[in-house]
Each structure stands twice: as C-alpha cells, then as structure tokens.
Amino acid sequence: MRCSKESLLLYAVTDRRWLAGKTLYEQVEEALKGGATFIQLREKNLEKKEFLKEAREIKALCEKYKTPFVINDDVEIAKAIDADGVHVGQSDMEAEDVRVILGTEKIIGVSVQTVEQALEAQKYGADYLGVGSVFATGTKEDAKEVSHETLKEICEAVDIPVIAIGGINERNVMKLKGSGICGIAVISAIFAQPDIKEAARRLHRLAEEMTDRMSGKKKGTI
C-alpha cells in the first residue's frame, strides 16, 4: 500500500503510556473509527517477541480499515511482518538503506527539521516527511521546535508530501494553515484523550479545514 496526501491527513502515532486499562489494539481501533487515516506503531521498550505479536495484530486491524500502517524505526520488524513501511528519524537508518531492505513498494517516512535534511531524504527515496516539533511537546523530551517559516520552506522545497508533528492539538492546529502541509501527526491529542474516537473525529475535521479540503464540503460544526 502506497501513501497519498489524502492518507496522511490524520496520522496517529501510538503510545502505550495512556492505555488506562485498554489494549493498544482497542485504542487504535477507536482512532480508526474516529477518522485516523494513517497509523504508526511506536514502541521503544517492548521485547522483540511482544513487539512482533503486537505489530501483527495492529497490521491486521489496519488492513481491515484499509489504512496504511508503518513501524517506527525498526526496519527489521517492519520487514518481518510485511508492514506497509517504516518511519525513521535522523539518527536512524538512511532512507536509501531502508529502501534496499524493504524494496520499492514500501512506504518510507523520514523525520526532518531543515530544508537540507528534507532534500536529502527526498533524494534518497523518502515517500513523505514528518517535520517537527512544530509546537512544544511533552511526548519527546529532546524534541527541538521547528519554526513555521522553516516548515513552509520545507514544503516549498520538496515534491513529496509533508506532515507536521509535535504538540499539535485542537487548539493550535489551525495555526498551521497555509504552511503547505497535507496533514498532521498526533500522539497525545488522540491517545491521551478520554474519548479517542471523538478526539480523532474532531481532529480529522479540523485537519480537513486546515488543509483546505473542506472546500466543496458543507462546513458544519466541528
């Protein structure tokens, strides 16, 4: 499954810190029912056996909802379960090397913070870019903020889709309007909310408005 600008509208990144008695599978399904259009499984501390099991389950769920599914950082896991692709950061494997391992049909996303990084990632085969942190965030303590001017410059410099990530929520998402991004990536704005489905529904509608996809649609209440 390839990614499109439409599939990147509301990109949900998992985080088990907010399970609150639910399973990750249940939370991801709620997000999908609410309107998440892309799922990234992000696990930093699971044992490999558990990670594989979880990844296979979430992959099957995303297939049911016909939603792209990628693994954060772990190219080996992505290949083992035949995920739709992988998302890597600047300190991880280069997109060019990931492409060699996963092949031409898989999705490769790359995190960038500068125009130079963006152009390099595009050159070496990235399918989309994640730019951030665009707002202050508590999810990644080492995240550095990227100015909205730089975000716009990155969007103008590359030909592949760009999404913004980092501290995005219902209150600030409209500040990204006009930047050139095709969607937003969120973690706590969905998974830390008491009603995940409703949070995803509202963010999906706001993301449509922010990216001007509401033109031609009836703009009802959020």
CATH level 1 name = Alpha Beta
The number of distinct helices, counting runs of at least 4 residues, comes to 8
What fraction, in percent, of the residue positions are helical?
25-40%
Largest β sheet strand count, sense and barrel closure: 8 strands, parallel, barrel
* Total beta strand runs: 8
User: What is the CATH architecture assignment?
Assistant: Alpha-Beta Barrel
Low-confidence stretches: 218-222
Radius of gyration: 16 Å
Class by helix and strand content? alpha/beta
Architecture overview:
Pathway: Cofactor biosynthesis; thiamine diphosphate biosynthesis; thiamine phosphate from 4-amino-2-methyl-5-diphosphomethylpyrimidine and 4-methyl-5-(2-phosphoethyl)-thiazole: step 1/1. One of its GO terms (cellular component) is cytoplasm. Residues 10-190 form the Thiamine phosphate synthase/TenI domain. This is Thiamine-phosphate synthase. The chain has eight helices and eight strands; from the N terminus they run βαβαβαβαβαβαββαα. It is of the alpha/beta class. The protein has one domain (6-210): Alpha-Beta Barrel (TIM Barrel). It has an eight-stranded parallel beta barrel with strand order 1-2-3-4-5-6-7-8, surrounded by seven helices. Helix 1 runs parallel beside helix 2 (48-64), helix 1 (24-34) crosses helix 8 and helix 2 crosses helix 3 (75-81). The longest helix is centred in the first third of the chain and has 17 residues, at 48-64. Mean pLDDT is 93; it is low at 218-222.
